[in-house]
Amino acid sequence: MNGTTRARKRPHLSVVIPAFNEEGVILSSLDKVHAYLSGRDYPFEILPVDDGSTDRTSELALDFAERHEACRPIRLPRNLGKGGAVRKGFEEARGRFILFTDADLSTPIHEIERFLRLLEEGYHVVIGSRDLPDSDVRVHQPWYRETMGKVFNRIVRVIVLRGFRDTQCGFKAFDRESVLPILNAMRINGFAFDVEMLYLARKMGLRLREEPITWMNSPDTRVDAVHDASRMFVDLLRIRYYDVFGRYRLPDRGLSSVDGRGRSIVQEDGERE
Predict the structure, then answer these.
(1) Which string of DSSP letters, residue by residue, matches 197-222?
(2) Do residues 213 and 136 make contact, with C-beta atoms less than 8 angstroms apart?
(3) β-strands 136-139, 214-216: how paired?
(4) pTM, rounded to two decimals
């Protein structure tokens, strides 16, 4: 059974790929994802979300979709930011499980099998991490980006979300039904949307797991080391502000979060036992 036939059934997996001016990699990435998933025994769909690109990203995605029915491109009329693009993809996704992955596939698509097993075991959110002992970082970022990333994650743990080593890796998988209420509550469109999503998932009582991944840095990053880092810091303060003043509305699912090794996390303050 190929990806075209599977696309007519409800997908087991939806792969959301946010893309902004990614004409240099989008076709190659779509081809790799489709080729891999076509060899699996479950139905799937691929949703590249063009976040208001000014290059040929949308045109190339549409061309790919004409030849592969499992691909359903989405084009946003203007640039919303990575968070806005991911949310739109999640809203359109039909799969039981949803993965969002960066357009450059810094984490190979085959890592999804481990994530799917964990979701099937009952976790609601599984996030890739470059900073766990078993993580395999084969191509590192420039030293200043790695340093800024580590500093940012420490700030995240102090201000917003304790218990996680790496909140910004672009490879995260979700149980669709569990995450839908979070999408309606989210307010951050920029790169800190990952932190908001995880913060709300924990607040809602979902089961979270941080999992080591293989990762290779892409030199063609869309993150500005200074401008975007400052905006992300402001967004962390916004998340705390929205929570303190009751701007988030979520259903209560109880308290059941876990860390990157399956041990429980104390819900009150997020520190590991």
Answers:
(1) HHHHHHHTT--EEEEE-EEE--SS--
(2) yes
(3) parallel
(4) 0.85
